[in-house]
Amino acid sequence: MTNDITYRRIYEESSPEDGRRVLVDRVWPRGLRKEDAHLDEWLRDVAPSTELRRWYGHEPSRFAEFRRRYLTELREPARREAVDHLRDIAGRDKLTLLTATHDVDHSQAAVLAAWLTSAA
Description:
By secondary structure, the protein is an alpha/beta fold. The protein has one domain. The chain is built from four helices and four strands. It has helices spanning about 50-55, 65-75, 80-90, 110-120; strands spanning about 5-10, 20-25, 40, 95-100. The protein has a four-stranded parallel sheet, with helices on one face. InterPro entries: YeaO-like. This is DUF488 family protein.
């Protein structure tokens, strides 16, 4: 694995240094047209479940528990194909995980990037 995995907001301007750009949100970002997203793919199956996302509510005080629950979800057999696909991309190219979340350091993209990097 290249270990060159980053994350950022999808609303930020894209850059050639981003490598493969993959949206990891379950729902499409508000106010963004698909043709303006400049992404390579949208991988909804790797996003947190709707229940977990609603429980978390992007409350930083819940982040540690969110992280624990999300990592548990990522290990579920139903997620294996999506996770393996991200690992495959990361093994071949720089990978930028995209999210619409305002606080990207407390998002699933941050958790996923750290997890994929540590799995190298």
